[in-house]
Design brief:
By secondary structure, the protein is α+β, with helices and mostly antiparallel strands. Helices cover 22% and strands 27% of the residues. The structure holds 2-OXO-4-methylpentanoic acid.
């Protein structure tokens, strides 16, 4: 094992032994190679640099109770990256190649997977970019797919401590028929300015409303929105411009397994004040309770101001329990590395 203080890991980049890298040329992917240097030698006219042909994914691998390393639902991330590739005219990464790349890079960095019991995990970041030179606006003729890994702890300080969120009506994340439903790097560039404004105002996260009318809740900058009603229903927005979160998909299934009613439907802004619990969910944040949402002069307090509500706590414990191999993996979500 690496000599790392596993218990104080945050969500920060650190070098590991290597990443894995593949190049697509003349219609085919080459063999993947493990590369120790965390740099790419790239053409100055690469399409990803000028025209934003860049997509990424986020997954986690866990050192489980039985000592084995398992990665969570990599096939679903592979499918989502294929959707992003299609929408941005990039060479698709076949699912088998994606899952194999993930396994190989984890095995090559297995001493960076945090020990069981520390609450840490190995964050896996696949990246697909148009690396071929392209000066007219058109898809690149060469693509690079790579997967890097980083050991991580909680995304927000304090793990399950609730955070405050802000709605900034001057900024939108994604257009209704745009690319909000795929994981294009530019979606995150589009959110950075608002995110910095939110941070300066003391909010770790911003919540977006639909771009057309600013009437309906969409998602947080880096995670999906979940609301738990007072009678225990799981509510998550339905919209064409939300990223289909693998964690939200997982939690919906867990909620249904626990006997909760799951509703995927438009969520009007006014309904925020009615929820017993609100959470942000995603691979990086897992489930993070949100105790306050501010929009201009309106301050909406939700649930406990100091801890996590009981339903989100149960969902969090269940998903983490499955991921760390403490609870039965009845849906076959965990893939042994
Ligand atoms: C993830 O949860 O993996 C994400 O992609 C969010 C983020 C850190 C950009």
């Amino acid at each position: 094992m690496q000599n790392i203080d596993w218990n104080t890991l945050g969500f920060k980049y650190m070098d590991t032994h290597c990443h894995i890298r593949y190049v697509w040329r003349d219609g085919a992917w080459g063999p993947g190679e493990l590369a120790a240097e965390p740099y790419l030698n790239m053409h100055i006219a690469a399409a990803c640099l000028h025209y934003g042909q860049a997509a990424f994914e986020g997954m986690k691998a866990f050192r489980c109770k039985d000592g084995k390393i398992r990665v969570f639902r990599p096939q679903v991330n592979a499918q989502r990256m294929a959707n992003t590739a299609r929408r941005t005219c990039m060479a698709p990464v076949p699912e088998a190649m994606f899952v194999d790349a993930v396994s190989r890079v984890i095995r090559a960095n297995d001493d960076f997977v945090p020990p069981y019991g520390t609450g840490g995990s190995l964050y896996i970041r696949p990246l697909l970019i148009g690396s071929g030179a392209q000066i007219g606006v058109a898809p690149a003729s060469e693509y690079t797919f790579l997967v890097l890994v980083v050991p991580v702890g909680p995304y927000y300080k304090g793990g399950l401590q609730p955070v405050r969120a802000v709605i900034l009506d001057d900024y939108d994340r994604a257009a209704p028929l745009g690319v909000g439903n795929v994981k294009v790097a530019g979606n995150y560039a589009a959110s950075l300015y608002a995110h910095e404004q939110a941070k300066h105002a003391g909010f770790p996260v911003e919540l977006y409303l639909d771009s057309k009318e600013h009437k309906y809740v969409e998602e947080f900058a880096t995670s999906n929105f979940i609301g738990i009603t007072k009678d225990g229903r799981y509510v998550t927005p339905d919209s064409s411009s939300i990223l289909p979160s693998v964690t939200n998909n997982t939690l919906k299934q867990i909620a249904a397994d626990l006997g909760l009613t799951v509703e995927v439907r438009p969520v009007p802004f006014e309904e925020l004040a009615e929820f017993a619990e609100v959470g942000a969910c995603g691979t990086a944040v897992v489930v993070t309770p949100v105790c306050e949402i501010v929009r201009g002069d309106t301050v909406i307090k939700i649930g406990s101001q100091t801890g996590c509500g009981p339903v989100l706590q149960k969902l969090y414990e269940t998903v983490q329990g499955i991921q760390y191999g403490e609870l039965p993996d009845t849906h076959g979500w965990c893939v042994e590395v």
